[in-house]
Amino acid sequence: MSKPSNLVSALVVACTVALAAPTVAMAAPGPAPAVVHGKKHKAKLEAKAEKSRVKVGEETKIKGSFADLGGQESLSGGEPVVVQQLRGNVWVDLTTGTCKPNGVFKFSVSFQVRANVTLRVFHPETELYVGVVSSLIGIVVI
Known about the structure:
6-stranded mixed beta sheet; 9 strands; alpha+beta; 40% strand
């Protein structure tokens, strides 16, 4: 093709794309609120053990809270949280649940072996929030 016909072809393609883009955008489902704001919210996750020393088989509670650091979102509850135990160099899920509407959570855990146990609470990345972990929780199982 000659240069003028290449230019005409390029203009036709550009106009077609420009006219089709609004139609495609209108047909796409609406984005989640976090996307509208341009980025996901940061959050804070706090957790602690009810007891730092327990006997083998004895139950203790892991209590904590999940909060939006932007302060603009009100939690509706249902944010996922996972209690994890460090085994070797790998975090292993012990139990999974969700936050209450006020952002608090509570899990019961027990251990069947004497050990120094390291736990954390993990909130995976969601459509609204980035992933976040709590500080480490140490429990001595005697």
